[in-house]
Amino acid sequence: MANPQNKASKADVQSTKLNQMPVPGVNDTEFSAEEAAKVFKDNPSSGSSDQNQK
């Protein structure tokens, strides 16, 4: 960034990590209702036993 006007150049802006398009599938946090239901079915919560322990 050796710009005499003390501003970022187009190349500087485009190369910053926060200004890049996300790569599909990387850091994907979305999931379907079917996937969530399967997880809850396969891993029953221990929350019901915790409620009785007060």
Automatic annotation (TrEMBL):
Q: Where is the composition biased (Polar residues)?
A: 1-19, 43-54
Region span, Disordered: 1-54
Q: What is this protein called?
A: YfhD family protein
